[in-house]
Amino acid sequence: MAKVTVDGIEVEIPNGASVLQACEAAGKEIPRFCYHERLSVAGNCRMCLVEVEKAPKPVASCAYPVMEGMKIFTDTAMVRNARRGVMEFLLINHPLDCPICDQGGECDLQDQAVAYGKDSSRFDEQKRSVKDKNIGPLIKTVMTRCIQCTRCIRFATEVAGVPELGATGRGETMEVGTYVEKALSSELSGNLIDICPVGALTSRPYAFVSRPWELQKTDSIDVLDATGTPIRIDTRGGEVLRILPRQDEAINEEWLADRGRFSFDGLKRRRLDRPWIRRNGKLVAATWPEAFSAIAANFKGRIGAVVGDTVDAEAIFALKSLMTALGSENLDCRQQGEAITGEHRAHHLFNTAIAGIEAADRLLIIGSNPRLEAPVINARIRKATLAGLKVAYVGPATDLTYAATQVGLDTDFLTGAERPMVILGRAALARPDGAALLAHAWALANPTPEWNGFNLLHSFGGQVAALELGFLPGPRGLNLAAMMGGGVDALWLLGADGFDPARIGQNTFVIYQGHHGDAAAARADIILPGAAYTEKDATWLNTEGRMQRGWAAVLPPGEAREDWKIIRAASAILGKPLPFDTIEALRGKHPLFAGIVPEAALEAPPPAPLSGEAFAAAPGNYWQVDPITRASETMAECARSAATPALAAE
Amino acid sequence: MSDEPTSFAFDAEAEAAIAKIIPRYPEGKQASAVIPLLYQVQYQMGRQTGSAWVPRIAMDVVAERLGMAPIRVYEVASFYFMFNLKKMGRYHLQVCGTTPCWLRGSDEVLRACRDAGGLKGYGDSSADGLFTLSEVECMGACVNAPMLCIDEDYHEDLNYERTVALIEALKRGERPAPGSSIGRQTSAPEGGPIVLVEG
């Protein structure tokens, strides 16, 4: 530790820390553009100049290590003058187009120019202008605004692991770009928008849409992958305009995957906004009372229920309570027939937790492509590999953005590791030998009470809640496969779009409750319009089993209602009213909502013979995986551009 | 970009040079060889096509060879003026316009290049594909200013007529001897020694 004083305030700071960090520890704000806590230090913007005693000239605090007894001054005439000068230089080539710039109002350059800059420029030469680059359908570039802080270059290279951005040319002709025009091949590209301190990289779908001060901000959780990234939903007039990540060191640091950030336009299209009833083979619009009386007439006999992948814990619990009240144990949430029993929590959780990746020394990935299934977790793995984590994977050859060796299931890769870690993809459990894979992966991870390195990586934000709430067949209950082909007389699908509805028996009466008119809704006899994840106060569990709350940012469209309320209303019609009328009362009925969960016991799954079948490649289409993303025009464009990168560059 | 070739492979001569270059750098630091390898590309293109430049596909080949991302090679190649990223004339005329050469008449050298080479100005290539004209900063030959660098040969003590003669010789396919055009010995005083002449 080194003792330094910042403007007379004494702070203690680890050796090797930068002067900038010392200033922050002392509560002093240091303006900066190129410096970013999660990236390497570039030291090229010069905005963070401070005065250090005995140093003959101002020093760039971000790149200057502290020394014992150092005296730092952040608000002297020299510092103020230096900042003014640097700002004047930065603004020489920066256009005066704030009124038409999408960064306006949340622009570091704008804010710092006001706080630290001069009131006018002495520059009367020609400003330079730079040709805009096409780096894909998500990011709009206005490269004349670029101040060449190189944050985007470092983000792409260091965090996203796709070294495709660079600074070409030199001096005044230096430009940031890909040189050969192409779409960035990253699933984390949206973070470039957040990381760019000026308006050079902005969101293409959000271009010219709104100003930050017009937006209402609601905290929620991204459910389009199982990371459980905390998000902020920005809305105006009942419309979601953009989604940004919030910071959580334990989960996402500050990144958000592109699917979670850009697919919200799918929330405005193909929505179910009123109940529908099938009459004479055709779906016709109906009212809620009509829908409920049709349910009362038909939802009887052998009944079953299936929940989908992005359903909130409250709705799952309400539907399970209803089915229990109706005396049915035919429940399932494993739409692909995954070999998950729900018996032991440790078998279906990401036991090391996401932050635990950094504690592991060896990682074996089995039947999963975290780059496509959970890009933010993949970024965390990449970060750990840079600090020494060794990675191997079982499955088809792929580029995970970090060094990883391809091995077989009989690998001894984890032998001798101090903290071995296994990530098993949920998709792998859908194989016929899924149970055997689970047992094998568990044995490879060899969990101990001190370190359980077995991790199951789920695909969506609703999957763990369904398992934790036990939405699984009871002792005499039917599973999904048994409910298909006429196994039940009536089937309630709660957002269940993850299996082929053609498997449902011809004479099975199907209720589809959900928010999008996808394949399952087309098969339904009754459609109950529900709310998407942005439209409800709800509890979500990510792949770690971490409980998180999201709040409704907008109202569901038209006649659509929050899902637990629909089920509560249906329960009254079906003669088994559920014992809760408010969401608080619902949450009071299950300890999970209070965060009380049983201990994750270290019981090894029963071993079974492996089939030896090769792993299939992960579905290449990262962008279109569920009803929301399939309805999204932005995601469709991403998929098109990924399929034909050359076309995207035109 | 229509001039861009669709493939590039090092020839035997380049490979022989590369085999000497890469072991100069410690294991794992092969990316340090990027500049020498780009020079090899440029030399090879000069040998093979008469136009010494670095096509994009060749930068990809260098990146692949050194295990680095292509963009890192583009960054280096576009940073240094020595690498020509566009198709060049057979002879690269580089006129020094820095103060000493300028004071000694570099404007005349430039005019001679334009007139004799059929060039419009800096950055232009002649229609016959023989010449490309560039302005360069001080190349360290100030004592014999003004100077013109043709590819890698320095031609010094030039004036309009001698520059024209030089270019005419190039057009005839000759390669004039580099150095002072007035027969000065290295950078000794013009007209021979003037001090320490006795004893």
Task: Explain what you see.
The complex is a heterodimer of chains A (650) and B (199). Chain A has 650 residues and is an alpha/beta fold. Chain A contains 19 helices and 26 strands. Chain A is 24% helix and 17% strand. In chain A, the strands form 7 sheets. Chain A has a 7-stranded mixed β-sheet with strand order 14-13-24-23-22-15-16. In chain A, strands 2-1-5-3-4 form a 5-stranded mixed β-sheet, sandwiched between helices. In chain A, strand 10 (216-221) and strand 11 (230-236) form a beta hairpin. In chain A, helix 8 packs parallel to helix 15 (563-573). Chain A is globular, with a radius of gyration of 27 Å. The two termini of chain A are 54 Å apart. Chain B folds into 2 domains: 12-79; 91-180, Glutaredoxin, CATH 3.40.30.10. Chain B has helices at 12-21, 34-49, 56-66, 70-79, 99-103, 106-117, 160-171, and strands spanning 91-96, 131-136, 148-150, 153-156, 179-180. In chain B, helix 1 (12-21) runs antiparallel to helix 2 (34-49) and helix 6 runs parallel beside helix 7. The model of chain B has no long low-confidence stretch (mean pLDDT 93).
Biggest protein-protein contact in the assembly? A-B, 12 and 9 residues
Report the CATH C-level class of the domain at 270-340 and 464-594 in chain A.
Answer: Alpha Beta
Mean pLDDT metric of chain B: 93
Unreliable stretches of chain B, pLDDT < 50, 5 or more residues? none
Count the E strands of chain A: 26
Helix content of chain A: 10-25%
Biggest β-sheet description of chain A: 7 strands, mixed
**Tally of individual domains of chain B:** 2
Radius of gyration of chain B: 19 Å
Shape designation of chain A: globular
CATH architecture of the domain at 270-340 and 464-594 in chain A: 3-Layer(aba) Sandwich
Provide the CATH top-level class of the largest domain in chain B. Alpha Beta
Looking across the biggest beta sheet of chain A, what order are the strands in? 14-13-24-23-22-15-16
The CATH topology of the largest domain in chain B is what? Glutaredoxin
Describe the oligomeric state of these chains in a short phrase: heterodimer
Helix content of chain B: 25-40%
Query: How large is the share of residues in beta strands of chain A?
Result: 15-25%
- Give the biggest sheet of chain B: 5 strands, mixed
